[in-house]
């Protein structure tokens, strides 16, 4: 199965996301042309924001990584595939893509191929 990992704001290095522990401008695209937003957080970032006053932590399309780096993001695609993210998450509409993630000229795209498992 082929996927595209899109850094919609471009990609130079990992310094900002390593420092902040959060990244929300990454999309994963599938072979049918659907795109899904990935909300990437580190455990340290969650610990810092999930204080005793909160009863739960909720985030749509959440992916928790030890470090938010390009390599870790690309590596997590296989696990997302096995988990069946396409059945769990809603794809972005064309309007959402255009409003929040365009212009496409700024996109930096990395192809990721995952071996088909369990008929997927």
Helix content: 25-40%
For the record, the count of structural domains works out to 1
Tally the helices: 5
Terminus-to-terminus distance: 8 Å
Q: How many beta-strand segments?
A: 5
Order of helices and strands: EHEEHEHHHE
Shape: globular
Give the mean pLDDT: 92
Strand order of the largest sheet: 4-3-2-1-5
Strand content: 25-35%
Structural class: alpha+beta
| Major sheet attributes | 5 strands, mixed
**Unreliable segments of 5+ consecutive residues:** none
Fold blueprint:
Elements (H helix, E strand, L loop, with lengths): L1 E6 L7 H6 L1 E8 L5 E8 H7 L12 E4 L4 H14 L1 H4 L5 H7 L7 E6 L7
Parallel strand pairs: 3-4
Antiparallel strand pairs: 1-2, 1-5, 2-3
Task: Give a quick set of tags describing it.
single chain, 120 residues, five-stranded mixed beta sheet, 5 helices, 32% helix, globular
Question: TL;DR of this structure?
Answer:
Helices cover about 30% and strands about 25% of the residues. It has about 120 residues and is α+β, with helices and mostly antiparallel strands.
Polypeptide structure, described:
32% of the residues lie in helices and 27% in strands. It is of the alpha+beta class and 120 residues long. The protein has a five-stranded mixed β-sheet. The mean pLDDT is 92.
């Amino acid at each position: 199965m082929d996927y595209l990992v899109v850094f919609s704001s471009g990609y130079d290095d990992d310094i900002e996301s390593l420092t902040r522990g959060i990244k929300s401008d990454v999309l994963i695209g599938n072979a049918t042309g659907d795109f899904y937003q990935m909300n990437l957080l580190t455990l340290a970032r969650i610990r810092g924001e999930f204080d005793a006053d909160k009863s739960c932590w909720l985030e749509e399309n959440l992916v928790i990584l030890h470090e938010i780096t390009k390599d870790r993001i690309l590596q997590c695609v296989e696990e997302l595939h096995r988990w069946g993210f396409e059945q769990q998450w809603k794809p972005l509409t064309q309007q959402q893509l255009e409003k929040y993630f365009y212009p496409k000229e700024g996109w930096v795209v990395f192809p990721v191929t995952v071996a088909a498992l369990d008929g997927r």
